[in-house]
């Protein structure tokens, strides 16, 4: 049974920074590609960034250069460091596998709100 703990969201002003964390209680984490998804209000969930078991990252164009995804396999933890946040980054952020997210892993996510 897999459990996720997502944390680090909050309310920040435009231009601010946040660091999201996702702790995954599964032995498959280390050898799988994982990523951060987000769902703005009233919109579809989208992939923001991913990181492979070999630490190769990918990014949505709109966040490239501002966000950095990383992982610590010893801690079964994935991170998303976000800088220069914009109002359009406002969303609930989730972690899951990439490119085939598991329906059983969607949790409550962590809310990121960027507003003045």
Helix content: under 10%
Distance between the termini: 40 Å
The description of the largest β-sheet is: 6 strands, mixed
Strand arrangement in the largest pleated sheet? 2-10-9-4-5-6
The class by helix and strand makeup works out as mainly beta
Integer-rounded radius of gyration:
13 Å
Instruction: Supply the number of helical segments.
Output: 0
What ranges have pLDDT less than 50 throughout 5 or more consecutive residues? Answer: none
Approximately how much beta-strand content do the residues carry? over 45%
SSE order in H/E notation? EEEEEEEEEE
Shape: globular
If you average the pLDDT, what whole number results? 94
Instruction: Count the beta strands.
Output: 10
């Amino acid at each position: 049974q897999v459990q996720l703990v997502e944390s680090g969201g909050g309310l920040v002003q435009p231009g601010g920074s946040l660091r999201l964390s996702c702790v995954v209680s599964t032995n498959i984490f280390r050898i799988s590609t994982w990523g951060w998804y987000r769902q703005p209000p009233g919109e579809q969930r989208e992939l923001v960034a991913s990181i492979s078991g070999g630490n190769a990252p990918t990014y949505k164009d709109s966040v490239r250069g501002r966000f950095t995804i990383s992982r610590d396999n010893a801690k079964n933890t994935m991170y998303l460091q976000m800088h220069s946040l914009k109002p359009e980054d406002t969303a609930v952020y989730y972690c899951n596998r990439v490119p085939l997210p598991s329906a059983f892993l969607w949790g409550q996510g962590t809310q990121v709100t960027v507003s003045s």
